[in-house]
Task: inverse folding
């Protein structure tokens, strides 16, 4: 199963030429995604869950699962008492799997490289696991998470180091210096998929919207 991921699906996502192609690859992968990612020890959702639970109480209000995929984090947030939770993802196929879990108040298709289908300051917090990575979304996607989270809210993200080192770290520094964000937590670099030897490191961050 690990070889299947390395040989086709995940590499196809990384190599995809734009949002439409990424969505098509994830649509085709949706039914087997969770089992295959579990087989390589996928960690990003767990890291995001821990950081959000540390910094935002379950009573805080509406949460956005941005890049929700099949709804892994939504299930876990529900178990911890977070409600309501909304999901947005590029892939209709992944959203169909997420909808079947019946943990989301609303599910919408959306693209973090464009304007998300939400009004300003709608959410008390947002989680975004595995989206700021190779071939997906760069630092420009952070602006939409900031826009839809209310002042005082918390944004939790993971960032692959290759993306971090090519503009993301500077974008975070600029937003902190500009009084837009407060950096609450930053993990050391870790392997998001320890069962896949060629996985580059990434990190998790918790940020407060000021």
Result:
């Amino acid at each position: 199963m690990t070889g299947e991921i390395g040989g086709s699906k995940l590499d196809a996502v990384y190599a995809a030429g734009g949002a439409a192609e990424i969505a098509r690859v994830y649509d085709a992968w949706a039914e087997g995604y969770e089992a295959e990612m579990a087989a390589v020890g996928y960690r990003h959702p767990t890291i995001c869950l821990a950081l959000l639970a540390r910094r935002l109480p379950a009573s805080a209000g509406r949460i956005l699962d941005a890049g929700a995929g099949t709804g892994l984090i939504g299930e876990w947030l529900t178990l911890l008492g977070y409600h309501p939770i909304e999901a947005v993802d590029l892939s209709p196929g992944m959203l169909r799997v997420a909808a079947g879990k019946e943990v989301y108040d609303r599910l919408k298709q959306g693209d973090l490289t464009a304007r998300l289908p939400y009004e300003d300051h709608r959410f008390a917090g947002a989680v975004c696991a595995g989206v700021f990575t190779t071939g997906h979304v760069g630092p420009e996607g952070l602006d939409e998470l900031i826009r839809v989270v209310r002042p005082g809210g918390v944004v939790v993200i993971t960032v692959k180091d290759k993306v971090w080192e090519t503009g993301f770290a500077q974008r975070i520094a600029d937003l902190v210096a500009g009084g837009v964000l407060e950096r609450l937590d930053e993990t050391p670099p870790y392997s998001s998929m320890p069962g896949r030897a060629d996985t580059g490191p990434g990190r998790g961050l918790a940020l407060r919207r000021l």
User: Anything to note?
Assistant: The mean pLDDT is 89. The chain has eight helices and eight strands. The longest helix spans residues 161-177.
